[in-house]
Predict the 3D structure of the following.
Amino acid sequence: MDPWSRRDGTDGTDEDTTIRAADRGPAMALSVRPAGPVPPQAAHAPHAARTEAGAGAADTKAGADTKAGAGTADTEAGAAGAGSPTRPLVTELHLSAFKSHRGATYPLGPLTVFAGPSGSGKSSALQAYGLLVRLGAGDPLERALAAVPGGAAACAPDRAAPDEQGRRGFRIGCTVDGPAGPVRLDVAVQTEPDLRIAGERLTGGGRTLFTTALTDPGRRTVQAAWHTAGPAPVTRAPFPDDRLGTALLPLRVAGTTAGQRLVLAAAEQILIALRSSFRCDPRPEAVRAFARTPAASPHQRSEAARLRPDCGNLAAVLERTGRECATRHAVLVEAVRAGCSPQVNDVRAHRHALADAGGRAHAADGQPGPGGGRRGRDDVRAGGTGAAVRAVLERDGELGALPVDWLGDGELRYLALALVLLTGPGVLAVDPVAEVLPARQVLTVVADGLDRCLDRRQSTALFELAVRMATRGHVRLLGTVTDASVAARTPGSRVLHLGV
């Protein structure tokens, strides 16, 4: 199978394109940047010799002389990093053929939102990004696709006809800028008749660094070739066809030659940027249910609480962050005043007694409190079976404390999103590259339906907070919105309009 063939409804050109959502009504007019030519050496070859010839053509200078090749690789590595960011950042999302997207390249900045009517492809763009994140984390292809609504079959482009051998698939990728310069990853996935990664290509510095190709459909492997610039210009080996080859390179490449080090630097840059990602979809019902869960439950323990994607354990995380960072906690309180109520003095968490079926509050030992009534929060021992962690808003004067789980959906989502923007990988349930210092990573928060349930005031405050944190280099935000007017008026944000 040729992983880069155009049997998916695209015309094979890289010119600005008008994308049509075939089964979704009217045309999607979208101007997209040229994505560059597709190198032929990544294509399927019936014999291993064809893969070798393609890789060798890309490495002519390296193969001519070992020392010259090493010097060239070192020179290119230095030139590529000039003027690039010091921390890896995903700067482009490539949807060559994915659902309703055709030949599209979306530029991503510190704060980027997709906007457009229902069915325009906003959510599917984030699904493709999430798929790359999971593959970069080492997930098998089937598990990575399970999180996409409809699974593998739904990812193939609209009206994409199978080839003469009944094969269909999709193609996605990204560009990551960083110390190694801009590096591009392209992945071709076959969804029918068998699910597999049919081809992969990693390019940087004008050189093809790594490719895989399906040479024998009867085997569950692909033929991989990567740049070496040593005694042999390239190295070849079989790779499994259900894993992202780029994620396996740090385990397979020795790094003994300049060419190998160039490959490793490019692969690690891709993996660091993709894995520093947190998918966030606050669920108000999850926050309310958490307030009724006994503190002895593993979900309630706050000593090392990490915020879940649904933000249900928001109270436990607030209890932790309130102790650990007074400065950011003060910024959170300021954000809550802007988006919820100006009377708020503090946002904190405390332990409260849970009532039994008869309405009696129970203490840590499971016995009713004095008189069968509610015990004071200081009387409830942390970690007791009758106590739960509850977040509250402390308000001025006689207004007193308001439990967060009593708030409306919009206020709860706003509070949760603000907390996410003000924390980091140590607090969020993410899986960054452990071998890389946090200072070398930038967290990307991915939020589908970013403005869901929020009024205009809350959306404005949230975007201003996101820009503030992005400017400091703490976080990047990638999301979708129904109403783009607030984002469009916020300096520092980028709106990508679909379906117009």
